[in-house]
Write a structure and sequence with these properties.
The complex is a heterodimer of chains A (380) and B (466). Chain A contains eleven helices and eleven strands. Chain A has 380 residues and is α/β, with parallel strands linked by helices. Chain A folds into two domains: 135 residues, Thiolase/Chalcone synthase (Peroxisomal Thiolase, Chain A, domain 1, 3-Layer(aba) Sandwich); 218 residues, Thiolase/Chalcone synthase (Peroxisomal Thiolase, Chain A, domain 1), CATH 3.40.47. Chain A has a nine-stranded mixed sheet with strand order 3-2-4-7-1-8-11-10-9, with helices on both faces. A two-stranded antiparallel sheet of chain A has the order 5-6. The longest helix of chain A is centred in the first third of the chain and has 16 residues. With 466 residues, chain B is α+β, with helices and mostly antiparallel strands. Chain B has two domains: 326 residues, Peroxisomal Thiolase, Chain A, domain 1 (3-Layer(aba) Sandwich), CATH 3.40.47; 120 residues, no CATH class. Chain B contains 13 helices and 22 strands. In chain B, the strands form five sheets. Chain B has a nine-stranded mixed sheet, with helices on both faces. In chain B, strands 20-19-18-21-22 form a five-stranded antiparallel sheet. In chain B, helix 2 crosses helix 3 and helix 5 crosses helix 6. Chain B is globular. Classes of the chains: A alpha/beta (380), B alpha+beta (466). At the A-B interface, helix 4 and strand 5 of A face strand 16, strand 18, strand 19, strand 20 and strand 21 of B.
Chain lengths: 380, 466
């Protein structure tokens, strides 16, 4: 699987409260940018994968949403939904489709229009009685509190993650929240779900991102700067960790397993990774992710944060894009947006937020929370 | 021997200082507090909490359940069956609700005594609870309080033997609530206390004492419902009782008048203190009166409630404002949390969601919730048995949510390890905060409304019991 698939073009909308744009506008902007980047005629696309978590009034239910937006008809399109791993899983499916030999060129597009709903946060689905009262921040907070209790970590550590990601995002023209913040601001923000205050939480965001993948041996027909897919992994664990009496709540097995699969496929170790876009839906999640991805031992994440090793100038820059925290989190788009960031970094096109000469980048989503994780490793 | 085998009580944690009511309306109020059911509590949930305390965990077997209340959350729907299910009692039992007046608690106890005497059941649970609502600025505001009591009547293991009963039934307009009124109406005062309450309850007490050939001084403890703070003392005095030594001390300055639960709470207070061989007389009133005479046995010392009433009285959280009380009782407009539980889902998951069963793996022994077909630990399929989840546990982890749809914030949510196994994820009741390791008790509460119905589920609350 390694090096059989190449990314030949990427595109990404501005992320934010895009009140004047519709779901189809987002798809078009991301797709057209990717077409231009790959210098490809849309008719050359043989198949497509659409990642959308939550269908809304303006689209997202089934692959038709992508077909109609782009008038991309008469070919296979599949909608992927896998919680917050939706975008990276759509990308993974596209890679498999090419590696199977069935298609040469495939479009991956993640799009999410959360702001048409009005209101705050994400709507909750599921059982009317069991786990009632859960929320995305509330579910991750269960893990954060157990982790912080076990390892003696305070909210100040979490705040440093937010400050660092906002610093990076402020240097990213496409980011949703383009401002630097201070630790005090994080710690004094209104509480959402303890220990997460407002600035411990990523925003809900509108946005879309696209990637065009093709057989690696054909990539040079389209671009001089193809980025190769080195490996990927996807792991599903329980979607109801709060009912699992064996769960220690100190990290997510889905991330650990998905990362192992991806490293094995890529033939690398975590120490070979030069930077990573990880799923920082909440500040604590990033701390746990860097442990689950193997960049350090379980419980050592706070040390990396305090030592600045995850900053742009650190030895393992995490979320140079600003992450979900600052770039925003249009759920189905986020994974593809991470692919966009990895490709752009690997091409050395990131300007102020450019990581120095990276060879290997990693994209990671975890959703559910902890139920499903997807890891993609990209490189030269 | 037929009599009381077990008893328990439950007082909601919140107290409303009468001075807050006085301040709200610019009027004088007597000193003291009333107990206020939380926003997610009602007469059904209070009765279940009292019943769980009385029955123990797992519950002692009973062949019948009688629930008494004048403030059912349902005009039509039997509470006794709901209570029996939440308490995980067998299906093949007798059940009935007693309602209509605050006498219902004593009436239900009398009916239970007669049923056990007749051999219809060897044990019957009686639970009485009320959350009666007074109109804001009315004379009953500051008088009514919320609470519940439960007891089992049985033909063995008796701590207080049933001796005799007397009843009176005659129309008298004292308190009432028509089928379209939300708040209790009252024609109180000295006239009603004398010619309604005093005349009826006094007649029943005199009849019973005469029939037993007893003088007033032969009664050790007099547990009398009182429609206001003074009526019972005045009646007892007029009947020749020594109020100070014989009348069980009123609860009304601490929790208000708790309606159908009050005489049984006073009975609980008497049983908490009684020595063997004492005579306890219990009186209920409302369109007549029921009076019961018990005599404690040698078993009383070992058979007292695990949690004495005094403990429930002491475990109190003052409400920060009168407005909180208005919100709890929906006397101001509130936006209810909405969700629908179809009767299909309720039926299918009754054992899991209401009786609160999970599964135990025959291979590895792991208890897990909800009920499963494949073990979450050893992953072996179809080797799981139904397992009752214990009603207490400790907090494994938590959050305190400030935004999720709910009537009150902050709302703590907890993942708990239940005693005996099983991990649950529940909302927290009666607390703004919670910590890892905190012991909790499960309580059946109103969760939301939808489809024109109210939906209940288990929550975790800090343990206030002994």
């Amino acid at each position: 699987m390694k090096d059989q698939v190449a990314v030949i073009g990427v595109g990404c909308t501005k992320f934010g409260d895009l009140f004047e744009l519709g779901y189809e506008d987002l798809i078009c902007e991301a797709a057209f940018a990717a077409y231009a980047d790959a210098k490809i005629d849309p008719q050359e696309i043989q198949a497509a994968y659409l990642g959308t978590y939550m269908p809304g009034a303006s689209g997202g239910k089934s692959a038709v949403s992508l077909g109609d937006a782009l008038r991309l008809y008469d070919r296979p399109i599949t909608r992927v939904e896998n919680y917050c791993a939706t975008g990276t899983d759509a990308f993974r499916n596209a890679c498999l489709a090419i590696a199977s030999g069935t298609y040469d060129v495939v479009l991956v597009l993640g799009a999410e229009k959360l702001k048409d709903r009005g209101g705050r946060g994400l709507p909750r689905f599921g059982h009317p009685l069991l786990a009632k009262g859960n929320s995305a921040p509330g579910l991750f907070a269960l893990a954060a509190n157990r982790y912080m209790h076990t390892f003696g970590v305070g909210r100040e550590t979490l705040a440093k993650v937010a400050v660092k990601n906002h610093y990076n995002g402020a240097r990213n023209p496409k980011a949703h929240l383009r401002m630097e913040i201070t630790e005090d601001k994080v710690l004094n923000a209104p509480m959402i779900s303890y220990p997460f205050g407002l600035f411990d939480c990523c925003p809900t965001t509108d946005g879309a991102a696209a990637a065009i993948v093709c057989r690696a041996d054909l990539a040079r027909k389209f671009t001089d700067t193809p980025v190769l897919v080195k490996g990927f992994g996807l792991a599903v664990t329980t979607g109801r960790p709060y009912f699992d009496p064996t769960f220690d709540y100190l990290g997510f097995r889905s991330t650990q397993q998905a990362a192992q699969q991806a490293y094995a496929m890529a033939g690398i170790t975590p120490q070979d990774v030069d930077f990573a876009e990880v799923h920082d839906c909440f500040t604590w999640t990033e701390v746990s992710n860097i442990e689950d991805l193997g960049f350090c031992a379980k419980g050592a994440g706070p040390g990396l944060v305090h030592e600045g090793r995850t900053a742009l100038t650190g030895d393992i820059p995490i979320n140079p894009s600003g992450g979900l925290k600052s770039f925003g989190h249009p759920i189905g788009a986020s994974g593809v947006r991470m692919i966009y960031e990895c490709v752009t970094q690997l091409r050395n096109q990131c300007g102020e937020r450019q990581v120095k000469d990276p060879e290997i980048g990693l994209a990671h989503n975890v959703g559910g929370p902890g139920a499903v994780a997807c890891v993609v490793v990209l490189g030269h | 021997m037929v009599g009381i085998a077990r008893y328990g009580s439950y007082i909601p944690v919140h107290r409303l200082d009468r001075q807050l009511i006085g301040q709200a309306w610019g009027a004088r109020q007597p000193k003291g507090e009333v107990a206020v059911a939380n926003y997610d509590e009602d007469a059904l949930t209070l009765a279940i909490d009292a019943a769980m305390g009385c029955l123990g965990d797992p519950p002692v077997p009973v062949g019948g359940v009688y629930v008494a209340t004048t403030s059912s959350p349902y005009a039509e729907k039997q509470l006794a069956s709901v209570l029996a299910t939440a308490c995980d009692l067998p299906r093949a039992i007798v059940s009935a609700d007693f309602a209509g007046s605050a006498r219902a608690g004593v009436s239900a106890t009398l009916a239970a005594l007669r049923a056990v005497q007749a051999g219809a059941a060897s044990a019957v649970l009686v639970a009485a609870a009320d959350v009666r609502v007074a109109a804001p600025e009315s004379e009953l505001e500051g008088v009514l309080g919320d609470g519940a009591a439960a007891l089992t009547i049985a033909d063995r293991g008796v701590i207080a033997e049933f001796v005799d009963a007397a009843s009176v039934a005659e129309e008298f307009t004292y308190v009432w609530r028509t089928d379209v009124q939300r708040t209790l109406q009252v024609a109180g005062g000295r006239f009603s206390n004398t010619y309604g309450y005093g005349r009826d309850l006094g007649a029943a007490i005199r009849t019973l004492l005469e029939r037993q050939g007893l003088e007033a001084k032969a009664i050790d403890r007099l547990a009398l419902y009182s429609p206001d703070a003074r009526a019972a003392a005045e009646l007892a005095g007029s009947l020749g009782f020594d109020v100070k030594s014989q009348l069980v001390e009123s609860l009304q300055s601490q929790i208000g008048c708790t309606g159908s639960a009050e005489p049984l709470l006073l009975l609980a207070r008497a049983l908490d203190r009684a020595r063997p061989g004492e005579r306890i007389l219990v009186g209920g009133y409302g369109e007549g009166a029921d009076v019961l005479l018990f005599r404690t046995t040698d078993a009383i010392a070992a058979g007292r409630a695990a949690t004495p009433l005094d403990r429930w009285l002491a475990a109190r959280t003052p409400l920060s404002s009168y407005e909180k009380y208005l919100k709890f009782r929906r006397l101001v407009e509130v936006e209810e949390v909405t969700d629908v539980v179809t009767n299909v889902l309720e039926f299918k998951e009754l054992k899991q969601d209401v009786r609160l069963y999970g599964s135990r793996c025959r291979e590895c022994g792991q208890v897990q919730y909800p009920m499963a077909r494949v073990c979450i630990k050893c992953r072996v399929p179809e080797r799981l048995d139904d397992a009752r989840i214990g009603r207490r546990g400790s907090v494994f982890t938590f959050t305190v949510d400030h935004l999720i749809a709910n009537l009150e914030h902050p709302l703590p949510m907890v993942v708990i390890d239940a005693d005996g196994g099983g991990r649950l994820y529940l909302q927290v009741a009666d607390a703004d905060d919670i910590a890892i390791g905190a012991p909790v008790a499960l309580t059946y509460r109103r969760l939301h409304e939808g489809g024109g119905n109210r939906n209940y589920y288990w929550k975790a609350r800090p343990i206030r019991e002994a």
